[in-house]
Amino acid sequence: MENEKTNEKVTMEKIESLAKRRGFIYRGSEIYGGLAGTWDYGPLGIALKKNIKDMWWKRFVEDRSDMYGIDAAILMNPKVWESAGHVATFTDPLVECEKCKKRFRSDMTEGKKCPDCGGKLGEERQFNMMFKTTAGAVEDSASVVYLRPETAQGMFVNFKNIVDSFHPRMPFGMGQIGKAFRNEITPRDFIFRTREFEQMEIEYFVKESEWNSQFEKWRSEMVDWMNDIGLQKKDIHELEVAPEDLAHYSKRTIDFEFDFPFGRKELYGIAYRTDFDLTSHQNGSSVTLEYIDDVNKEKYIPHVIEPTFGVDRTILAILCTSYDEEEVEGEVRSVLRLPKKLAPIKVAILPLSKKEELSVVAQPIFEMLRKEYVCQYDETQSIGKRYRRQDEIGTPYCITVDFESINDRAVTVRDRDTMKQDRIAIDKLSEYLKEKFL
Ligand code: GAP
């Protein structure tokens, strides 16, 4: 692990402020006062997100011969959500304040008083969290469609397509990364609970008799993933979801909770969805979704293990883990100690001044290295300010080109974490960095 530290310095204010200041994440529609539960990713936020999604996709889809990728439509036939049980049960308990009319998730209020104005709270009722819209030019009940609240159903409805096109042997799975939408009653905690977010999900199809062993395998796959993205064991806690709290489709769920600055909250989950979804869609569509095992002469509806990963919560957990502050020469240095493979910018090339004699040395270095790494060329402001900026966005290496470089054909490479500087010959740079990024 690259990252070993206790992180009591991190607060949500610091993370939000850094994310905005440095171009990771902005409030959605900010110039109009924002829109609750929406956030926009800036250039560095997208780069971090893409690195996470690419790493996930490679690991769980491309590098495995038992996995099939899919990118299903966000809008689906509304019967999908009826069969899947979401129209009836994808709800949160809601209470409304009789005085100020504000609405809250009732499990987030204590007692019968409004957390905002102290007014009396009304009776609890169930609120369906699916966003509704209409498809086509006529707006009537027949044209209602939903924005998907989970990517999972796009995989269940394509189960037969994958079987017909690829004839996979059991067990096998499908993986998908994509947007999901939930009309959360109280979006909060920055990108933790939003109304539009991304999921990376796996539906792994197994024989019923194998569900327990596959559940355990995927549980440990998830632990390995969290370790590889730099999260620390001490911050992660497994919670066996109580039977009365299970989602309508689940027989067993373990939540992976993470110690965020605002408390211990769900990061990921793994669920045993039984044959609930495929059976429901078979009944709802009248299309058979049985798997035919020619070798063992068996025919059955597979059961499903579902490991699910929120992209935005991954980003938040990584930012919180990576954020660090230390005192350097009487000043506080803030630094994102991101795992190198996730850092949005890998190498910054910083000529000491804007003078042409330095740029003729620095530019070719930039052109050479950008073929291998995402690089940034920065010649604005003082070198101190530029280091501070690169530290705050988690750039592992800064290369400084100074006036000596003109004669000795060497540059200074500064390590983000140790701030140690090495003098390296320009023609050895590529080799030096290759070793560092191993
Ligand atoms: N297909 C199963 C499913 O959707 P879930 O626990 O409701 O299960 C899966 O959601 C993951 O999606 C969560 O573990 C979390 O990482 C992420 N997630 C859920 N609701 C979210 C929200 N409102 N904002 C951001 N991420 C969310």
The unique ligands bound to this protein are: glycyl-adenosine-5'-phosphate
For the report, how would you describe the main beta sheet? Answer: 7 strands, mixed
**pLDDT < 50 runs, ≥5 residues:** 1-6
SS elements, strand count: 23
Structure in words:
It is a single chain. The longest helix is centred in the N-terminal third of the chain and has 20 residues, at 43-62. The protein is of the alpha+beta class and 438 residues long. It starts with 11 loop residues before the first helix and ends with a helix. It folds into 2 domains: 3-74 and 150-320, Bira Bifunctional Protein, Domain 2 (BirA Bifunctional Protein, domain 2, 2-Layer Sandwich); 345-436, Rossmann fold (3-Layer(aba) Sandwich), CATH 3.40.50.800. The chain is globular, with a radius of gyration of 25 Å. The chain has helices at residues 12-21, 43-62, 78-83, 86-89, 152-156, 159-166, 211-228, 276-285, 311-322, 356-369, 383-392, 403-408, 429-436; strands at residues 25-27, 39-41, 67-69, 91-96, 103-105, 125-128, 132-134, 144-146, 172-181, 196-206, 236-240, 252-260, 263-274, 291-293, 298-300, 303-310, 323-328, 331-336, 347-351, 375-377, 397-401, 410-415, 421-425. A hairpin with a 4-residue loop joins strand 14 and strand 15 (298-300). Helices cover 30% and strands 29% of the residues. It has 13 helices and 23 strands. The structure holds glycyl-adenosine-5'-phosphate.
